[in-house]
């Protein structure tokens, strides 16, 4: 079967892609930027990639006409706090226009459980998209999921941050709202099993795990699985805005995502029936089992995808390719170089930078800079990195975004997503003479930008000097 996979570089898409390939399907991945599809060359060689922005009017012949089915996995919740619902409606309408040019038979849409009478803006938007997709000229299968628990999922990472960092919590009253979490493994199973199944055509199904829990119970059960205790008290005084700031500063989530999540956390997300799991004979994992499975992936360094790598986890939503050419004029630079004896070892160190490994010198200073960035509305350091020693273009790396990661040419180029009065690049490159070049480039925005650069020059002297020495040491 030939399948169009939208949102291919998103959290779900990255998990679904290898499963579909394993099942023997031909996959056409629809992405905004081909360079940002973070998969190994082995997978890239098996797929067809098309660049499409579903917020724009679709062009003719932009996808193959012999498409049999499609997955609609496009969401805009964390890209805006105001008009994400309009953006999602626009993407759904443009999707319908695009696939009307093909021979498509089925579309599978992953939505959210929408059984509460008073839906949040986020869940109402998901329902509106569902209504738009039902107008398409194909058979629609809608899977309405509860909170998804898996390594790298936004919900799991927020719970993990809260529990690991705050053994004692004073929380808003929405932690008493009921929800029904589902393991990412089960979501992927449902998504693949409905493909081509005529019994699921033109119908909407709830999918969820077996446990109905409050958010407070989810936090307690997480601590239980991890072998420690936590204490949680609820107060009625936290407004949605205060709750959003609370999530933003304690966890790795972005403020936009936090605001939209808090809005949804006031609504019960509980499944109405088990029709689909009965039809497909699927027995979903419990919440505790989902946590165990997530940590097995984390401990084995097998986290396939993370919400943090999406562009919406950072500050910049535009195509980052325009930043690959580091400017030469009107910029300030800190360039250091050192001869290395074993370039392969040094290259592995470069590819492992950030996250748990740290920055090889003055990590406490990097943490202070990350905290200051959070205070001013930036991304901070909490995003870390998805894999300890694999990097792809488009990945997030603490408060940087990977622009270029080419092991063959021994070059790594990062672009700063921290709050700055200008634009910043950090580049590592080993040349043909085995000389490691480390270059920090800053393009200041006005006088303020230049004052910022010169004020941190003393720190650069120690941090960048110590960093290159430790990366190059034998």
Explain this structure.
- The chain has 14 helices and 19 strands.
- It has a seven-stranded parallel sheet with strand order 3-2-1-4-5-6-11, with helices on both faces.
- The longest helix is centred in the C-terminal third of the chain and has 27 residues.
- Helix 1 packs across helix 6, helix 3 runs parallel beside helix 4 and helix 5 crosses helix 7.
- Helix 3 links the parallel strand 4 and strand 5.
- Helices cover 36% and strands 21% of the residues.
- About 1% of the residues have low confidence.
- It is of the alpha/beta class.
- InterPro entries: DUF2867, NAD(P)-bd_dom, NAD(P)-bd_dom_sf, NAD(P)-dependent_oxidoreduct.
- Keywords: Membrane, Transmembrane, Transmembrane helix.
What's the oligomerization state?
single chain
The SS-based structural class is alpha/beta
Query: In which order are the strands of the major sheet placed?
Result: 3-2-1-4-5-6-11
Shape summary: globular
End-to-end separation in angstroms reads 52 Å
Q: How many strand elements? A: 19
Beta strand %:
15-25%
Characterize the biggest β-sheet: 7 strands, parallel
Low-confidence stretches are: 77-81
